[in-house]
Design goal:
Helices cover 68% and strands 3% of the residues. The protein is an all-alpha fold and 157 residues long. It is elongated and about 85 Å long.
Length: 157
């Protein structure tokens, strides 16, 4: 009977460990899938490596100038979509009309012709870089497992 109890305890422990490992693996997969949630993330990754506010502004302005192929001072959806495809990002950016509508708040941020001007593009991209950095920090925090619960309690303060 003693041996049977030991065998049952070991099997139960192995089962519980396997279930927990499965849950942990599933949670890691969900986090990986959510890390790339927005079509502009490859561009935002590049823009997020700025050294100052003016550096970020100059990087965003350079992107705008590259995207504004017809050099008319505003970006249409099609111009932005095609321009983003030409940027050397990994993975390539495939902006949909829905993505454009989201970043322009249903065209509310566009001019009367439905296009983005530089000042508005700067505001949109600065805000998106900010959100991107916040998301990345949140993902990093969820990937970190503190060695003991007291450290976890300190992190939550």
């Amino acid at each position: 009977t003693f041996l049977l109890n030991v065998v049952v305890a070991v099997l139960l422990d192995n089962f519980i460990s396997a279930v927990q490992d499965g849950k942990d693996a599933a949670q890691r997969e969900v986090l990986k899938a959510r890390k790339q949630v927005f079509s502009l993330d490859p561009l935002l990754t590049k823009l997020a490596s700025f050294s100052s506010a003016s550096d970020l502004e100059s990087k965003i302005t350079e992107v705008y100038r590259v995207l504004d192929v017809d050099d008319n001072g505003s970006l249409s959806f099609e111009e932005m979509r095609q321009g983003l495809k030409r940027l050397h990002t990994e993975p390539p950016i495939n902006m949909s009309m829905e993505d454009f509508e989201i970043i322009t708040q249903g065209y509310a941020l566009c001019n009367s012709e439905g296009e983005l001007e530089l000042d508005t593009f700067l505001k949109i991209m600065r805000k998106n870089v900010e959100y991107f950095i916040q998301r990345q920090a949140a993902f990093q925090l969820t990937d970190v497992e503190p060695p003991d619960s007291s450290l976890g309690a300190l992190l939550m303060v």
